[in-house]
């Protein structure tokens, strides 16, 4: 046996991310000290790779959100207001019924809300940016009139509307419901200049 094949493989930043993501999906709490120990690396190395726990969770959530968004964009037909509202509805309906997300919120609602919705959250800012790009694509393609407000502001309000439906159990003690998402979609349609 060669010397190189007998050496244990060193963990990589991708290994740390995958292991943490798997733990989150299984409903296990992520502890950076335990994760570093499992990977046989120092805590300082893990922090250099993933930042703090909040940043790591933001990356995990984004890794689940981005493919969901991409699938919605492929599956929804048309252009303009109908397309944007269709993508918006499909993404948020999936999130409304996501078991791992609901479990995350149920375990520590205040912490989950901070990770999911804080303006300093990597997830929230990326969702707003992604939504802004979608709006600009439709405007630049001539499928959507220039909104009456800044596109970035419109995107931000659209995301906040979705969050108010998805996380209503934490925000106001009311279980999230499909009917509220339908109302949010009507509001988005109106914000985009369409008829409810």
UniProtKB/TrEMBL annotation:
InterPro entries: TetR_C_36
Domain of life (superkingdom): Bacteria
Protein name: Transcriptional regulator
Pfam families noted in UniProt: TetR_C_36
Domain called QsdR TetR regulatory C-terminal: residue spans: 79-188
């Amino acid at each position: 046996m060669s010397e190189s094949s007998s050496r244990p493989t060193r963990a990589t930043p991708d290994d740390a991310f995958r292991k943490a993501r798997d733990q989150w999906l299984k409903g296990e709490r992520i502890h950076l000290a335990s994760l570093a120990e499992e990977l046989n690396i120092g805590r300082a190395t893990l922090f250099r790779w993933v930042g703090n726990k909040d940043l790591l969770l933001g990356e995990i959530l984004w890794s689940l959100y981005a493919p969901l968004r991409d699938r919605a964009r492929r599956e929804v037909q048309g252009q303009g207001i109908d397309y944007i509202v269709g993508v918006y509805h499909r993404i948020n309906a999936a999130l409304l019924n996501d078991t791992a997300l609901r479990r995350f919120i149920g375990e520590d609602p205040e912490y989950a809300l901070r990770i999911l919705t804080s303006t300093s959250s990597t997830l929230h800012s990326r969702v707003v940016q992604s939504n802004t790009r979608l709006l600009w694509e439709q405007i630049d393609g001539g499928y959507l009139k220039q909104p009456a407000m800044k596109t970035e502001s419109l995107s931000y309000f659209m995301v906040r509307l979705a969050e108010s439906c998805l996380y209503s159990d934490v925000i106001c003690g009311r279980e999230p419901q499909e009917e509220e998402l339908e109302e949010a979609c009507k509001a988005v349609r109106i914000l985009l200049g369409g008829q409810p």
